[in-house]
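Incident log, support desk, overnight shift.

02:14 A customer reports that sequence design results differ from what the structure should imply. Their input is reproduced verbatim below. On-call engineer (initials T.W.) acknowledged and began investigating.
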């Protein structure tokens, strides 16, 4: 059995959906083939006994330029987190929050910010420098690791080890800060421009909104593509001939099929707990990310999700998310709960595990030298899209999908 399509998109993750929206805007016929039972790829949510569980702890930054263009923020009903972190430093809890966007802890900033005055001055100069640096300038600068970039700027000692390393390892999903300084600079800029948030009904709503305008007849779920040969796609049931093919699968599959440069994938495990009210009332019930400045346990970060988005749980219930990266992503439940007790400073013995997510390929590593935007065109008829071709972020996935669609349009002579 075989059929013909104009543009075949393999994968209904964010990149594939963004590609489809751009093609649809330009009145170019397409069909999406998705292996799983739903859209979103790595940005999906589950709904368990009234709790909303994102598949791995994720946040969305509303300053993403491509997100602004493609998404309806009012409909997403974004729930912001505090623009900062709570650092567990032994028995002490440091609250470091942007004083310009949240005045709640402004008076604590000077005494709670780790490091000596010299390293703090390095931090200020680093932020100021990249606030006035364009994305184009960041993309063309000499690349080094995030760690080297920070230390060269004077961000070192306890400021680095208690604030930046614990915070950034949750963003990069690696603890050595070996990630490209280009991505570090992009992360810091977006953090200063927008407050990380979650949609009221879960991260899945981003994917749902992107797919909402796509005709159901243009999307095939539970359809596994086995291979590509020339302009033909082979699924388990049929052969599809396509004028153009866009590979928007997970990074490892795309790299394997297209013989692209291999990339390490960083992993993460996220645990969701039904907690008690004691944790929700900490630091004025503010929705803030907690990290361990001394890294005395397996967890990278933890947060009371319902302090930001009460809709993530049934009325009156408390939802806590906790995540760990390599080499601690296989930690046992008792050590996770023990570390949670230390980080939050509350008893966690009676907390009930709702679900655990082990995500082996959560983010493509971005080691230097790194190009912030790689070509989306493989041949005249074959294209690729995904965060592995741009930045390892939602913005990267969306932008890559849009760029692939634009190249398809050009190749069709439109």
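02:41 Re-run completed on a clean worker. Output:
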């Amino acid at each position: 059995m075989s059929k013909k399509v104009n543009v075949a998109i393999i994968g209904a993750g964010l990149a594939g959906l963004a590609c489809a929206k751009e093609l649809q805007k330009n009145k170019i016929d397409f069909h999406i083939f998705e292996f799983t039972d739903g859209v979103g790829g790595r940005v999906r949510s589950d709904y368990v006994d009234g709790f909303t569980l994102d598949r791995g702890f994720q946040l969305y930054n509303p300053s993403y330029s491509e997100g602004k263009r493609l998404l309806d923020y009012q409909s997403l009903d974004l729930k912001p987190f505090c623009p900062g972190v709570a650092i567990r430093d032994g028995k002490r809890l440091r609250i470091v929050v942007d004083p310009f966007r949240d005045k709640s802890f402004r008076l604590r900033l000077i005494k709670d910010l780790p490091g000596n005055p010299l390293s703090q001055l390095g931090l200020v100069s680093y932020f100021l420098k990249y606030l006035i640096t364009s994305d184009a300038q960041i993309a063309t600068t000499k690349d080094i690791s995030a760690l080297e970039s920070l230390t060269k700027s004077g961000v070192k000692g306890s400021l680095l080890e208690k604030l930046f390393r614990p915070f950034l390892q949750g963003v990069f999903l690696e603890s050595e800060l070996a990630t490209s300084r280009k991505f570090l600079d992009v992360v810091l800029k977006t953090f200063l421009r927008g407050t990380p948030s979650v949609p009221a009904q879960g991260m899945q709503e981003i994917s749902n909104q992107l797919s909402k305008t796509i005709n159901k007849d243009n999307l095939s779920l539970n359809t596994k593509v086995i291979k590509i040969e020339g302009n033909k796609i082979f699924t388990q049931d049929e052969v599809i001939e396509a004028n153009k093919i866009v590979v928007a699968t997970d990074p490892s599959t795309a790299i394997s099929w297209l013989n692209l440069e291999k990339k390490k994938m960083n992993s993460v495990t996220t645990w969701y707990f039904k907690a008690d009210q004691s944790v929700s009332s900490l630091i004025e019930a503010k929705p803030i990310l907690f990290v361990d400045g001394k890294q005395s346990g397996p967890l990278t970060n933890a947060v009371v999700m319902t302090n930001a988005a009460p809709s993530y749980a049934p009325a009156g219930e408390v939802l806590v998310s906790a995540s760990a990266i390599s080499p601690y992503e296989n930690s046992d439940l008792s050590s996770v709960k023990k570390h949670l007790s230390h980080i939050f400073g509350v008893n966690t013995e009676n907390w009930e595990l709702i679900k655990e997510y082990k995500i082996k390929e959560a983010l493509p590593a971005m080691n230097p030298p790194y190009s912030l935007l790689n070509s989306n065109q493989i041949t005249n008829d074959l294209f690729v899209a995904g965060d592995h071709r741009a930045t390892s972020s939602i913005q990267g996935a969306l932008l890559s999908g849009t760029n692939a669609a634009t190249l398809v349009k050009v190749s069709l002579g439109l």
